C-alpha cells in the first residue's frame, strides 16, 4: 500500500505486476475499496502493470466534504496516472467506477487507451433515489443498508457457498469509516448523465455485466455498448453486480484478452 497526493487529497494505491507493461487501472464500485479486485488481479498476467486505488471518500483515501462530482473522481484518476508516471492506461471500472472511467475518457482522452466497463451505465438510478440514499446514510450511517446492498452485489449461490466472504463484504459496507464520503459519491451519481456525450468517446471498450445484476441490469449495459462508437458487450453468467468477486478468473481472462488486443500484443 502506498499513499499518493493529488488534487489536494491523499489516495491509497497499490501497484502490482510489471512496470512498463500494458497499464491497467481499476476503479471501484460504491462502498468498496481496492480489495475488491484482489482475486482478479491475482489471475491477470504478471506482465501487466496494474494500478488500484481507493477513490475519494472510500477505503484509506481522503474523504473531503461532499458533494463530489464525477469530474472530481475523474480528475483524481488522471492525477494518479501523473503521480505514478503512467502516460496512458486502460481503465477498468465497475459500477460508479465505470462512470468515472467514461468521464476520464471525455476529460482526458489522450490518457485513456481503452475502457473495460463492468455493471455500469451512462446514468445509474434516479436523482430522487440517490438523494434518499444520501439522506439515510447521513442520518443513520450504512449499517441498515448493508444487508440489502450485498444482496444486490452477490448471487444467492455465491453467498450460500461462501458465507464468510459474503459477511466480510457486508462488513466493508457497514463499517465504512466516512459515511459522508460514501454520500459524496452518491451525489456524483445523482448528478451525472453521460448519455449525450457517449458518441464523443473513440476508445475501444469492452462492456461486461452479470447476467442477474439488479442494480445495473444487462439491458442498461447492452445499451451502453450500443451507444459507444467502438464497444462490444458480454455477459457473465449467474452473477449479480460484482462479477469480479463471484467469477474473478473469468473476469480476468476477459480483461486480459481485451488488454492484449488494445495494446497490440
TrEMBL record:
Domain AB hydrolase-1, chain residue ranges per copy: 22-248
One Pfam family linked to the record: Abhydrolase_1
Stretches of the chain forming a coiled coil according to its record: none
Protein name stated in the entry: 3-oxoadipate enol-lactonase
GO biological process, one term: beta-ketoadipate pathway
GO molecular function: 3-oxoadipate enol-lactonase activity
Top-level taxon of origin: Bacteria
SUPFAM superfamilies to which the protein is assigned, alphabetical: alpha/beta-Hydrolases
